[in-house]
Amino acid sequence: MGLDIIEVARIESLAARSKKFLPRIFTDEEIAYCRLKKNPWPHFAVRFAAKEAVWKALGQKGLTLKDISVARDKNGRPSVLLRGKKVNDIELSLTHSRDYALAVAAGLAH
After folding, report:
1. Which domain holds residue 64?
2. What's the mean pLDDT when you consider all of the chain?
3. What's 99's DSSP letter?
4. Which residue in 15, 4, 24, 107 sits closest to 65, CA to CA?
5. CATH number at residue 79
6. Are 71 and 79 in contact (CB under 8 A)?
7. Number of domains comprising the chain
């Protein structure tokens, strides 16, 4: 299991300080999805928290944050992709407010 919380303003600040931040952390698909939102920063922040939560749940395994991405199914349910391939044995729960984003990643028992 992995858990992460982050301040939305921190992600916005990092992106403002470096144009390389978003493309270093997020996939092109994640960036496009977040930029479609009226206020993209909670969406970027919750994806960042999800990447951290999955990274912790997997024990890091030589992964970068960009190797981990969040996709949504047709019903809006989040799922984990590792290097573009869906991971079926990790469930994600995401939430955000104006100020904070939180993600929990839980591995399914086999």
Report:
1. 2-107
2. 94
3. S
4. 24
5. 3.90.470.20
6. yes
7. 1
